[in-house]
Structure formats: C-alpha cells, structure tokens
Amino acid sequence: MASLKFSHSNGNPFAVTRHVTPRSTWPTRIGFKIFASDNHSEPDLSVCVNGLQMPNPFVIGSGPPGTNYTVMKRAFDEGWGAVIAKTVSLDAAKVINVTPRYARLRAGANGSAKGQIIGWENIELISDRPLETMLKEFKQLKKEYPDRILIASIMEEYNKAGWEELIDRVEQTGIDAIEVNFSCPHGMPERKMGAAVGQDCALLEEVCGWINAKATVPVWAKMTPNITDITMPARVALSSGCEGVAAINTIMSVMGISLDTLRPEPCVEGYSTPGGYSCKAVHPIALAKVMSIAKMMKSEFNDKDYSLSGIGGVETGGDAAEFILLGANTVQVCTGVMMHGYGLVKKLCEELKDFMKKHNFKSIEDFRGVSLQYFTTHTDLVRRQQEAIRERKAIKKGLQSDKEWTGDGFVKETESMVSN
Question: In this protein, which residues make up the domain named Dihydroorotate dehydrogenase catalytic (predicted)?
Fold first, then answer.
C-alpha cells in the first residue's frame, strides 16, 4: 500500500514523499455485526461496510439529528441503517452555541416565503453536552440496539494525548465505528480543529497517524469541500490507515443580507459569521466531489477494502441513487431529517427500491460505481463526438461550429444541444 508523507519544507504544506506501508501492519478493525436476511423478490437494500452490516445504506449524518439519546433512538426505531452521533470532544465547556443559528434559502422571486427551501446555512458548533453524558447515552443505545450500527463522530485539538483519550473513552461504550470530523468549516479553527486539519495535508497525516494507531474499530475521515482538490486529503486519510472517507461536509457560505436591515443572516444581535451550507443546492457540488474521490480510490486503492459515504442534499431515493452510482457505499442525511423528520427513511427506501426495480438491480453492489465509467476529459468528448458524427454521416444533431447559429432558430438550436 503506497502512503504519503507530507512536510512543510520550503513553506509548501503539500510537499510529497512516497513510501510503502504494508496494510498488514495496521491494526485489524473490521466489525462483525450481522443481520439475518429474508429471501424475497424485493431488491435487497442491505450493505456491508468495513465489516459492519446495515439493513439499508441510509445513515443519519452527524449533527442535530444525532444530538442525544432520544433522537438517536427515534432514528433506530424508524429504520435508519446507521446513526452517526453529533461530534463530541473532551471539553464541551468551550462549546457555546447561539440562537438563531440557521438560515434558509428559498427558490422563487426575492426568496419568497412560499418558495421551496433549496439551501440551508448553519453556524452551529459541535455538541455542547458534557462528554460523559454523551458516552452514557452511547452505551445505553448499544445496550438497547446491540445489532444496530452506532458511529461516534469525534473532533479534538492538536494534541496526541487528547485524541488518544477521546478514542479510548468512546470505544469503551461499544460504538461500532468512528467518524473523524476533519471538516467543520466554522468554529475554533484557531485550535486546529475541524477543517483546519482537513485543509492541511501534513497536519492531517500526523493526526490520522495518532488516531489509527489507537483506534480498534473502523475509522472514517470526513472531508471538507472547502479545498481545491478534495482527493488530496482523502488520499492521505486512506494511506494513513483510515478504512473509509465521508464527503462532503458543509460548504463555507454567507446565506444573504437583509435588504431591509442590511444585516447578514442568520442574525444574532445584529451580527453573524460565515457558516456551513447544505441542502438541495449543494447536491451537484457534493456529487462532483464524491466522483473525484471514488475515481481516485478506484485507481489508487482497492476500493473493496475501503468505503465511501456520500453526503449532500439527499431528500429522495433518487438523490441517494446518484451517490451510489458514483461509488458511495452509504448515503448520509442530516439537513433532510431536520426538514422532513426521521420518517423520511421509509420514503428513501421505497424510492431507492423503485429505482432498483426499474433497472432490475437486486442489490446495492449491482449498481455501485456504475456511472464512474462515463466521466472523461473534454478532449475525449470532442474525439467521441467527431467519431459519432462520422458514423452517423447522414444526420447531424446540434450545431458543429459557432458560424451555424441563427437568430430566428436560436432557441431550437440551443435545445438541440441539451442532453437532459
């Protein structure tokens, strides 16, 4: 297994030195949670991810939907495949949230209150509940739901002992896996937390080394989209021992400015701060990031040994199918639950099954990554189209050069070159 070493030599945080670290030398952290399955004609939504068996690929993403025992229990009762709890750290006392902390973007003229919600910004921090309280609730959930998958999301300051203590304490509760928050775009970057690590590959490799030397359960690294090339930190995380990556966390944003008060939203005592953007509007961006990571994993790693969790604007089974077609093993939902409730999982499962029936897919693996093969370069697109034109000979579809545009037929000529 090729891994990467990053240093800050010559002021370049992305300087790369390759060396080989055999995966056989890493700790074995594969879980063995097994569900009995019934033989029936319906498509099988169950997935096995890093040895963890889930009844479906739908996972509660880290955030408010996994903030305490009551809501996580509700998620299991409704049938979610797994739950990732809200991110915890050793000292919750330094986490102080404000209200209001959300702002919404609606479609329609001037953000009409009747328009569909397409964007959601939050300035929320990680869990503000004492770690001991969260740990007790993890333990209680695993006692009540021993065969369900509970994943702890963790984030700590740049301190090896702190990371090791946090991992040890969450693992003692019986959680099945760990997702490391290397991606929160706001809150305490001065402490080298969240995206401050995920955006610095040298720092990321060092912290991943601490984490993977300590952890005994599968580890997922949650990636930030607020970076030029998301494959760089994803590659570092996998090379440093993580079993999977999750992408994307929210996109840094300013939701808007009130044209009445001239103040930004969400507005707290007249002021605001940039926050994380989620919901339907980020879905295309998330798909592009997941596609890039999946292609990298396929070409540089044995993707059957690693996992990819897709996140971003999932509200329908079709949204989820797109992530899976691009190589995701699981699909996380956070803002969607905040908008539609925990019962959303039933709709997601039914719609995903409908998609699978339409294409005669029997399992998730039947179509996972199928669409990756259809991405190429623009140069290759030109070559393919020229070959197709030569083959068709008699009929051309769409204009072939700018000189062919006409004023009278402009709209129809535009339509002739649209693919969907």
Answer: 45-356
CB-based burial label for 36 (10 Å; 0-12, 13-18, 19+): exposed
The residue count for the chain: 420
What element of type H or E holds 251? strand 251-253
Strand partners, 263: none
Q: Using CB atoms within 10 Å of the CB of residue 83, give its burial: 0 to 12 exposed, 13 to 18 middle, 19+ buried.
A: buried
Task: Provide the pairing of β-strand 219-222 with 244-247.
Answer: parallel
Q: In 3-state terms, the chain is what percent helix, strand and coil (to 5)?
A: 40, 20, 40
Q: How far is CA 37 from CA 334, 364, 365, in A?
A: 27, 15, 16
b/e per residue, 123-135, with b = 16+ CB within 10 A? bbbbbeeebeebb
The predicted pLDDT at position 112 comes to 64
Element at 154 (helix H, strand E)? strand 149-154
CATH of domain 47-374: 3.20.20.70
Q: Which of the residues 184, 201, 242, 349 is marked catalytic?
A: 184
Q: How confident is the model at residue 35 (pLDDT cuts 50, 70, 90)?
A: very low
Q: Of 332, 322, 279, which is closest to residue 151 (Cα–Cα)?
A: 332
Q: Does the structure show a pLDDT above 90 at 290?
A: yes
Say if CB 151 and CB 179 are below 8 A apart.
yes
Q: What is the pLDDT of residues 38-79, one digit of tens each?
A: 445 899 999 999 999 999 999 999 999 999 999 999 999 999
Does residue 131 register a pLDDT over 80? Answer: yes
Question: Rounded CA gap, 90 and 78, in Å?
Answer: 30
- Confidence at residue 113, expressed as pLDDT on a 0 to 100 scale: 67
What's the average model confidence in pLDDT over 26-37? 53
Sheet with 102-106: list strands edge to edge. Answer: 102-106, 117-122, 275-278, 251-253
- What integer pLDDT is reported at residue 388 of this predicted model? 87
Question: At how many degrees (to 10) do helices 131-144 and 160-171 cross?
Answer: 30
Structure tokens at 385: 């189209």
> Given phi > 0 = left and psi -120 to 50 = alpha, else beta, which region is 130?
beta
Cα 324 from Cα 320, distance rounded (Å): 6
Q: How far apart are CA 381 and CA 340, in angstroms?
A: 40
The model's pTM is 0.85
Catalytic residue list contains 349: no
CB 4 within 8 A of CB 236: yes
In single-letter form, the type of residue at position 245 comes to V
